[in-house]
Specification:
Layout: E1 2-7, H1 11-22, E2 27-33, H2 36-46, E3 50-53, H3 62-71, E4 77-82, H4 87-95, E5 100-103, H5 108-119, E6 124-125, H6 127-133, H7 142-152, H8 157-164, H9 168-182, H10 187-197
Parallel strand pairs: 1-2, 1-3, 3-4, 4-5, 5-6
Helix pairs in contact: 4-6, 7-9, 7-10, 8-9, 9-10
Length: about 200
């Protein structure tokens, strides 16, 4: 029996996935969570074989959950099911040890088959996305990504400096690096492009 936890912030999608997977004779849904923090607590309580998670959720994102699982060396495999066909997300997911990455518009039976493959230790990645992922590398460092994300949320350089424990000048340097690497005119364009590519 493959024991799973579902993390998805959209109630209808969460319910549909849970019902769908519950019909499979070899898959047991141990619980569901509507945000990343609730998912993290649930994972520690029930210790499933696989976490099936969306990427963008309140609290922790699916990628942050995968990174935390990897850091703490929990024996939980991760499968991401998302609407985001962005190669940057896929590359970051693979870097975090994610074994499955599927799009929500894939046929329903693909998910159950993917879970079985992942349970055996194989990868289950959307094939077109896998091909596209290696054509364009993510140019941002983790620190640049954090600074740019906060700038895109409307925070000033001073506020970002305070939040991240950096000097004002260091934050400005990071933002300049992001703008230069992405070949855009300002931090707003840098944020927009990085989000579009899945690098944030």
């Amino acid at each position: 029996m493959i024991r799973i936890v579902l993390a998805e912030d959209q109630a209808m999608v969460r319910g549909a996935l849970s019902a769908l997977l519950g019909l499979e004779p070899d898959i047991e849904v141990l619980g569901t969570a509507a945000d990343g923090e609730a998912a993290w607590r649930l994972l520690q309580q029930v210790r499933p074989d696989i976490l099936v998670t969306d990427i963008e959720m309140p609290g922790l994102t699916g990628l942050e959950l995968a990174q935390r699982i990897a850091r703490q060396q929990l024996p939980i495999k991760v499968v991401i099911v998302t609407t985001f066909a962005r190669t940057g997300f896929l590359r970051r997911a693979l870097d975090a040890g994610v074994l499955g990455y599927l799009l929500k518009d894939a046929p329903a039976d693909h998910l159950a088959d993917a879970l079985r493959r992942v349970q055996r230790g194989a990868r289950a990645i959307d094939p077109q996305l896998a091909l596209d992922a290696w054509s364009q590398a993510d140019p941002l460092t983790d620190r640049e990504r954090r600074v740019l994300r906060l700038a895109g949320e409307g925070k000033t350089a001073g506020e970002i400096a305070t939040e991240l424990g950096l000097s004002h000048g260091t934050v400005r340097n990071y933002l300049s690096e992001c703008i230069g690497k992405l070949g855009v005119a300002n931090r707003i364009e840098a944020y927009r492009l990085a989000r579009q590519k899945g690098w944030l």
